[in-house]
Amino acid sequence: MNTFFTAIVVLQVLAALTIIGLVLLQHGKGADMGAAFGSGASGSLFGATGSSNFLSKSTGVAAAVFFAATLALAFIGNHHVSQSGGVMDSLPAPAAAIPSSTAPATTTPAATAPVAPANPADKSSQIPK
Question: Is the pTM of this model over 0.70?
């Protein structure tokens, strides 16, 4: 679907550039008035009247292509797949953590810490300071 969307956008941009070029090539309504007084404006590539008909028809075709591409983009833009849930639901699941109830109890004896004697009267197991 993304490739189809990109192709329509490229078609629309090309149609827009074609319309711009064709409109700039056309003569305005007042250009024929200069030809009546001896100006050389009527000696164009397509003849005195042929340019307006050819360029007008080509501009119409380019405008129709542009309009169709615009409608196709609007249709594709409005028909997106809706997701249920929020933004956080679309995130990937985290790595499975081991629950603390099933984890083996790992107790390490404190070898470096001094151990207090169980009987305070027994001072033989105390570490001297």
Answer: no
